[in-house]
Automatic annotation (TrEMBL):
Name of this chain's protein: 60S ribosome subunit biogenesis protein NIP7 homolog
Stated family: Belongs to the NIP7 family.
GO molecular function: RNA binding
Cited Gene3D superfamilies: 3.10.450.220, PUA domain
InterPro entries: NIP7_N, Nip7_N_euk, PUA, PUA-like_sf, PUA_sf, Ribosomal_synth_fac_NIP7, UPF0113_PUA
Keyword Nucleus attached: yes
Lineage: Eukaryota, Metazoa, Ecdysozoa, Nematoda, Chromadorea
Length: 180
């Protein structure tokens, strides 16, 4: 368990900023205590400083995880968010998409979202922006990247891809052994 390097911090904050914008500061400056990001075995954990101090008492090798795993660094040093970050992205998301009930299942199986499956979309969503996907009952289902902005998607045909899938709640079942 170690603090993030300057390069790692910029990669993590850039990825988070693509989904929640300037609200990244709200993850650190919270009313209920001080929170931090730590790197442990190439995974980035988000936890309270109190929990981090308690986890520091355990040697690195037997320590499996602590706090919430937001994502991991690949061997090429790129940062990938995991589905476990959804609870922290959803409340602060800048751009959102609400799915029709028939499209929810397709998204939860790992498919991209077509225009025909979208019920609502945040106005002003640009192309290639991070986007959080919700059900019609405002339950966050996952996140992805917008393939078309709001204005482009209004003019697109019903079979056009609007949101490219990155993570969904179904990954808890599909990739259970890789999430820690």
């Amino acid at each position: 368990m170690r603090p993030l390097t300057e390069e790692e911090t910029s990669l993590v904050f850039a990825k988070l900023a693509s989904f929640i914008g300037d609200n990244v500061s709200m993850l650190i400056d919270r009313n209920d205590g001080d929170y931090c990001f730590r790197n442990h075995k190439e995974r980035v954990y988000y936890c309270s400083e109190n929990l981090m101090r308690q986890a520091a008492c355990i040697s690195r090798e037997p320590l499996l995880s602590f706090g919430t795993c937001l994502g991991k660094f690949t061997k090429s040093k790129k940062f990938h968010l995991q589905i476990t970050a959804l609870d922290y992205l959803a409340p602060y998301a800048k751009f959102k998409v609400w799915l029709k009930p028939n499209a929810e299942q397709q998204f939860l199986y790992g498919n991209n979202i077509l225009k025909s499956g979208i019920a609502r979309m945040t106005d002003g969503t640009p192309t290639h922006a991070g986007i959080v996907v919700y059900s019609m009952t405002d339950v966050p289902l996952g996140f992805g990247v917008s393939a078309k902005g709001t204005s482009d998607s209004k003019r697109a045909d019903p079979t056009a891809l609007v949101v490219l899938h990155q993570c969904d709640l179904g990954e808890y079942l599909r990739n259970e052994s890789h999430l820690n």
